[in-house]
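Let us practice reading a record.
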Amino acid sequence: MGMFFGGAQYSFTTYLPLFLLERGSMPLVLAANFLAQAQVGAMASRVPVGWISDRWCPRDRQSLLRAMGVIALGALLGLLLVPAGTPMLWLSAFVILYGASGLSWGGAYFTLAAELVDQEAVGVVAGLMSTSMHVGNLVTAPLFGYVADATGSYTLSWGLLGLWLLLGIGMLSLVRTTPSGLEAPRGATREGRVPVALRSRANRVQTVWGQRTWAASRQDESRQDLGGEGGEHEC
């Protein structure tokens, strides 16, 4: 999922100014201004996306990521299908909407990935997720440019990004945070995993209980030994 969403994200920010320059004969400064609007939309939405992820869908972050992918896909189609001469306000709306969805999904993505594994493997998983994003960037951006040069139009290139978003949305449907048919143990997280702190506390309790049991058994053995010696002395 990260490879497809990441490829779409970096290709959008790379080719949006060129698309606006060649399609609408837009001045360079104005085309760069639209790219800045997309980045502002992404910056403004990251904290609200994190709040929604923690507040409303902590058990199902996949749904949030899917919704963001659908919104980004709609904004991308709107930007592609609007005719030349469309008012700047509409272009700004599509660009900002894509920035708020297609450029701000990273926080929820990394949070979901970290929740799928034990705490000991979070660093490795974060590295793998970041690598997949950059692999998507490395593959998609040159492919986008090649298709645009080969066809003389950006239509198929934007369609490629739409396909990437659809593939990412589809892959999210394969993610399961809690195995079906299994009930999470008491004290487990929302994803069905027992927290490391809880496991450590349980281990400490088990150790203390084992020590107490061993000490109690030793006391019983000592009493039996004393009782036996006393009985032999009385005899």
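A brief commentary: Residues 2-172 form a domain with the Growth Hormone; Chain: A; fold (CATH 1.20.1250.20).
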